[in-house]
Amino acid sequence: MTIYDIAKEAGVSASTVSRVINGKPGIGEKTRKKIQNLLKKYNYILNEAARSLSTSETRLIGILLEDIRNVHHALIAYTLEQALTARGYAGIILNTGPSDSSKEKYVRLLTARNVDGVILVGSTYQNSFMKQLIRSELSEIPVVIANGWINLPNVYGVLVDEEKGMERCADLLFSGGRKHIAFGLAFPTPSNINKLYGYRKSLRTHGIPDSEMIVCEDCISQEDGARAADWILENHPEADGILFGEDLPAIGFIRRMAELGISIPDQIAVTGVNNSSYCTLSHPQLTSLDNRPVEMCEEAVRVLIAVLNGEEPLHRVMLFCDIALRESV
Amino acid sequence: MTIYDIAKEAGVSASTVSRVINGKPGIGEKTRKKIQNLLKKYNYILNEAARSLSTSETRLIGILLEDIRNVHHALIAYTLEQALTARGYAGIILNTGPSDSSKEKYVRLLTARNVDGVILVGSTYQNSFMKQLIRSELSEIPVVIANGWINLPNVYGVLVDEEKGMERCADLLFSGGRKHIAFGLAFPTPSNINKLYGYRKSLRTHGIPDSEMIVCEDCISQEDGARAADWILENHPEADGILFGEDLPAIGFIRRMAELGISIPDQIAVTGVNNSSYCTLSHPQLTSLDNRPVEMCEEAVRVLIAVLNGEEPLHRVMLFCDIALRESV
DNA sequence: TTGTAGGCGTTATCAC
DNA sequence: GTGATAACGCCTACAA
């Protein structure tokens, strides 16, 4: 069923049908009605490929993320999909993994699909390799980075002030009387480095020199968190609080401490980041930095569509975190 | 950069370039080489829209699932994406939610995109409404249901024998000396009904009449699991084992029982389904039915691509579950 | 082995 | 207001 079939049936030309479909002005009211009825009657479905060939836009948006099995990414993917669908776009979600070569491969897939725009999820895409790649492969279309930013004319960043958020987490522990606060760093992505800076800032504010920072690295999985617990007890028995850059290791930490008979939050306060569904699973439930994934995604889509509509939104917008207070503090 | 540009540069016609791009036979070795070099030199990228218009295939696969925020679905989405990408296809993932009207809306989106095939994730799509919808909207393309099946010529089902799996879970508890086993039913989807049947079958095998089945309904979330714990203690204090149809309520159950000072698995054994990442978060860790999501997805993609290649795979294939044994039993 | 010509379904530019 | 007509980029008989 093409617009020609509809046109023939209505006794008009294909152009008229096309105008009706696209809501263009300058059509007689009776013809418009008649055509609309026929479209409905035959359950006409527009051929996007033909439309795309003619207009050279696909209404397809590429979404790159490292791994959707991460619950935080899953929430982001969900929100992006719903927001894009609501505006007539569809997303192609690709799991790139962490390696540069793989990221490049997936960017090429997107260009071959002629996507109208790209959303990169996570600060892991904020680096010089991606900058070069965007320059060479994606310079013609808008690119929005969720929780990151690259200084290029066609790149837009929707950032979350996790540095400030993490500083507030530390402040929260200090105000609760904690004296020796540790930090569990995940992969050293720009985002995680910012969290570390927030931690450091709070320490400095409270008169603690950088040399007394307690940083446990590679805190990503639940097992890493358990390992961190052992490490803290062994090397920093004075610690009475710890901030993790992710929820999962925080959960692992809590679980391990329970096994060792150490009471949380009495002996050590714990916080995570992402305010994910994991937070209510631990005992005690985990206090976590809410980095506003839903708002971030909605803003990312808003910015992207704005650019596609010829507007000129800000290249950087910043959202602010909340702290979801639970029992672990 | 089109095939015409390449053709001009190479001093040949566009059809020759097209043939080279598509690896068709009957091209002189020198011309082929020359053209391949030019393609590389100009970083030629094929216009999928034009190709699609001409061949009426898009290499796009629609993936419908209820909600990717569910970790089990996220794993499935991940696996499907990787399997499709590896074969040159791309997936459009859409979260339909549970309602029929919404499912219909999303099916229409897929037909408008001219997807080559559709994968429906979950037995929630196995019902008469979807059957009618597939008949009217998707009759021209292959549809694969992951963990479900509908009797239509273009529909293929990759099933997991969760009935047998659940029966084995119950058998496991019986063989551990449990006498009064309860069941926590989630939404009454076909899949969950099958799990209930498996539970019933094991009971019958062990000489327990249907009238003595202990079924707690609406066990979906963590809170539901906690509620189930209270319900069991109140109404069936004799229960010494419970099988949940999902992991999350099982986690909630365990947590609530811990609060009440009831020891698991000593006093009550607990199992879940999906063997998800939640299982290692509870204390004790959760024994869960591994319903083979990765294998299921890979088989689903295999079947779909086979149909697209003109083969005639079986309309129903069945996978078998494992039990991931942990501390809760 | 290679070229020509027509067609895929839509939009856009002119005419009328 | 509406209708021809060309164009989008590629594929594929059919011809040569």
Description:
Two copies of one chain form a homodimer. The first copy, chain A, is elongated. Chain A folds into three domains: 3-46, 434 Repressor (Amino-terminal Domain); 57-161 and 293-321, Response regulator (Rossmann fold, 3-Layer(aba) Sandwich), CATH 3.40.50.2300; 162-290, Rossmann fold, CATH 3.40.50. Chain A has helices spanning 3-10, 14-21, 29-41, 48-55, 71-86, 100-112, 128-137, 162-175, 190-205, 222-235, 247-259, 293-308; strands at residues 60-65, 90-95, 117-121, 143-146, 155-160, 181-184, 214-216, 241-244, 269-273, 287-290, 316-319, 322-324. A six-stranded parallel β-sheet of chain A has the order 2-1-3-4-5-11, with helices on both faces. In chain A, strands 7-6-8-9-10-12 form a six-stranded mixed β-sheet, with helices on both faces. In chain A, 45% of the residues lie in helices and 16% in strands. Chain A is built from twelve helices and twelve strands. By secondary structure, the first copy, chain A, is α/β, with parallel strands linked by helices. The model of chain A has no long low-confidence stretch (mean pLDDT 96). In chain A, α5 links the parallel β1 (60-65) and β2 (90-95). In chain A, α1 (3-10) crosses α2, α5 (71-86) packs parallel to α12 and α6 (100-112) runs parallel beside α7 (128-137). At the A-B interface, α4, α5, β2, α6 and α11 of A face α4, α5, β2, α6 and α11 of B. The structure holds a DNA duplex (16 and 16 nucleotides).
